Amino acid sequence: MRPILLSGHERALTQVKFSKEGDLIFSVSKDHIPSAWYSANGERFGAYKGHQGALWTVDVDPTTTLLATGGADNTMRLWEVKTGRELKKWEFPTSIRRCEFSEDGRQLLGVTEKRTGQLSNVVVYDINPDPDAEQTDEESLRIVVEELPRVTVAGFSSLGRYIITGHDNGSVAQWDAKTGELLNEVYSHEDGMSVTDLQWSADRTYFITASKDKTAKLHDTQTLEVLKTYVADTPLNSAAICPSPTEYVILGGGQAAMDVTTTSARQGKFEARFYHKIFEEEIGRVRGHFGPLNYVAVSPDGKCYCSGGEDGYVRVHHFDPPYFDFKYEVEKEKQRELGF
Amino acid sequence: ADSAKRSTADKAVVDARRRMLSEWFAWRDRVTEDLRDERLSLGLEERTEEQKALDVDEEEGSKVVE
């Protein structure tokens, strides 16, 4: 796999996202400038200037018109992808840990940080997809998360029906996206081990969570049932689902040397890990980063993936043909049955 | 005897994979069909805006303009 290094950020990467076409990568880091890159060659497409603090989160709408970012300057902002123009700034009492568009791009959610005197909130805004339109100040929904621990990650399900949240005690919850009512709550990960990432399947009917408990888990969106578990040997920061027909998931994490308390512990382990989604078996690793992988993302067209590291780099890997051709014997058998 | 034991173990692994595969695809077929029915009954197109973003003109290699 031919890696491309995106160097331009001066600090640790926090989130990376592909455009829904797969041609652009958006990255945010602890420096204050969201960046956009061509996934094919790693050239910079643009930068979005205005934030005044570390950034935690980025997302892009389905038509690659609008970009949303959030971070430690207690703002969530909306940008025009093409021009870099800032279209909207929403201000909060605490930082924004996560933002995500609904699948139709008509709603945007933000997760606010829990601090003394402030609860974790999930705020939702209706979005006008026209970059020249005025965007609303009025939240269409606010979920005040009182009964559950701090929200770390959140997203909209298929049809925008539910909001799914992950929490710093390892639990996952499902909320009615219209009323904000808590519908279901499961304890998927080890108690007290934070859910660090939540990424969707292409149709948002299932999702993967990553956790500090060294596992990633596939959940059914409707029932929150854990369908699959992927066991790693290092705390995980991120997990991504490869689009069909490739049946893989990619996990990223690693322990920084300063956090390794015992001298016997092997330092590092800074690799992207590939698992077979259905069989839960590890099938390969990709090295390269000099620090933990803070985020992994797969292009929606399945042709490449990228990882954002604590080392300040984004690495883009375009898959070689053997990656697509590899199949277990029972998979080949199934293909023959179906007449491929 | 060892190789017989091994081949029994291998067979168990393969059988387990075969079962996982068929369970997975049975679940996917059900969920995909339910979602499609729901989308159509809500007056939505079969595929989401996100999924449509992947439509490309194979010859041109560029996005289809509808």
Helices and strands of chain A, in order, run as EEEEEEEEEEEEEEEEEEEEEEEEEEEEHH
Question: How many independent structural domains of chain A?
Answer: 1
Number of helices of chain B: 2
**Rough outline of chain A:** globular
**Pair with the most extensive interface?**
A-B, 29 and 25 residues
Strand order of the largest sheet of chain B: 1-2
Largest sheet data of chain B = 2 strands, antiparallel
Q: Give the helix level of chain A as a range of percent.
A: under 10%
Content-based structural category of chain B: mainly alpha
> What is the number of beta strands of chain B?
2
Biggest sheet features of chain A: 4 strands, antiparallel
The shape of chain B, in one word, is elongated
Structural Rg of chain A: 19 Å
Task: Please provide the ordered H/E string of secondary-structure elements of chain B.
Answer: HHEE
Side by side, the strands of the main sheet of chain A go: 1-28-27-26
Which segments of chain A are poorly predicted (pLDDT under 50) over 5 or more consecutive residues?
none
Radius of gyration of chain B: 21 Å
Q: Which homologous superfamily in CATH is the superfamily of chain A? A: YVTN repeat-like/Quinoprotein amine dehydrogenase
Structural class of chain A: mainly beta
Protein name (chain A): Eukaryotic translation initiation factor 3 subunit I
Organism (chain A): Oleoguttula mirabilis
InterPro entries (chain A): eIF3i, WD40/YVTN_repeat-like_dom_sf, WD40_repeat_CS, WD40_repeat_dom_sf, WD40_rpt
Family (chain A): Belongs to the WD repeat STRAP family. Belongs to the eIF-3 subunit I family.
